[in-house]
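Record type: monomer structure entry
Structure origin: computed from sequence
Chain ID: A
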Amino acid sequence: MELLEIKELSKDFGGLRAIDHLNLEVREGEILSLIGPNGAGKTTLFNVITGYYKPTSGRVIFKGEDITGRKPNEIARRGLVRTFQATTLFKENTVLENMIIGFHLGRNAGFLGELFKSTGQRYEEREIKKQALEILDFMMLKIFSNELAKNLPYGYQRALGVSIALATNPGLLLLDEPVTGMNAEETVSMMNHLRRIHDEKKITMIVVEHDMMAVMGLSDRITVLNYGKKIAEGPPAEIRETKAVIEAYLGVEEE
């Protein structure tokens, strides 16, 4: 079953076409990786899917609903959530406080509850803290709950970014270069976290990543983009041997 459908999607920036009549399906329960050379349109596609850019043409369908052009917060509330290449944390807040902020989208207490600290709101705050700690425990970050986010090692900061995304209860999680800048040990740790999120929390994922070890180790299926177009799609073993993919990454030798 298709959880996300991209239909004839294009995005222009002036005279530059970053995405070119792209068709793409994401099946419920899979990990789909998007790969391609720099400038292939991968992050632009994420930005269109999640409402940060409006497409020039085409449609984005999530859970059967046309969400094309909706605002990012509206899309996130529907369970389509993303992380970013850069770690977007509240660096001067603790790890736990960052998690509580991440739950904000799901808050039910209204303005009067905020003002008068109603019984319902106090109960909700306790529940949010409990759930935040559960996610931190799952991501092996609970020990750092009271540490300022800025003091965490880089790999742990990236893991906290993923934890915050989990706080929004995603049905589809878009991960933009989740292991970029990590050393080998941090990369393996993040891969293990992502596999556990997929297997135990049953969250469908789209991953944009340049680290081929991570891509080949995580993906059920890989889609390859070049100049905004799909040039190949299939399981990792097949993509590894696809001539068009090799040429896109390495170029073609002149005769």
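Annotation 1: The chain has ten helices and ten strands.
Annotation 2: The chain has one domain: 2-250.
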